């Protein structure tokens, strides 16, 4: 016998000692994680790459709006909404495909008035609400079996446009104050209803 290796044996040994290929640097460690998941759960189980969530919109008293991803679990939804609003929550229906979630005692807690959410509610309901909305408001889709659905794209766009126009008008009022509160409400409603009509 001899300790010498032929050319084929040398190439085979070199290949066996090469490091495994690294994951694609442009995708981070995605490939590596997916490989681990499939190894742990079995070849027939596909990892959930896109966790389920519900699309919603938050409107703050200063008319700032931001999109949210709420959990789909009923208890988790309740806890997240309560945390975002800052206390017990009430639901109000101003559109058959949407819900407005707001503080259950916003006036008593002296939370700031939310003109943008009020204008949105008035526009969707088709009347001038005789009361105000207070604090942050979360806009979601309707309730189905205890959990809320996604806010539909068209309603999401309307709510965002109303908030944008309310914020725009608020900036105008800093240089041109309205003559009275009723005049301010009417101007706000006229401004935001045009946004609803064109969205």
Structure overview:
Residues 8-25 have a biased composition (Basic and acidic residues). Residues 1-49 are annotated as: Disordered. It is a single chain. The protein is 43% helix and 17% strand. The chain has 199 residues and is α+β, with helices and mostly antiparallel strands. It has one domain (54-198). The strands form 2 sheets. A 5-stranded antiparallel sheet has the order 2-1-5-4-3, sandwiched between helices. A hairpin with a 2-residue loop joins strand 6 and strand 7 (147-148). The radius of gyration is 28 Å and the shape is globular.
Topology:
Blueprint lengths: L6 H10 L13 H12 L12 E6 L5 E6 L3 H12 L3 E7 L2 E6 L11 H11 L11 E4 L2 E2 L2 E2 L4 H23 L5 H18 L1
Antiparallel strand pairs: 1-2, 1-5, 3-4, 4-5, 6-7
Helix pairs in contact: 4-5, 4-6, 5-6
Beta content comes to 15-25%
> Could you tell me the mean pLDDT?
81
Shape: globular
Low-confidence stretches: 1-5, 15-51
Radius of gyration: 28 Å
Structure annotation, total helices: 6
In total, the number of domains comes to 1
Q: What is the N-to-C succession of helices and strands?
A: HHEEHEEHEEEHH
Number of strands: 7
Question: Brief overview, please?
Answer:
Residues 8-25 have a biased composition (Basic and acidic residues). The protein is an alpha+beta fold and 199 residues long.
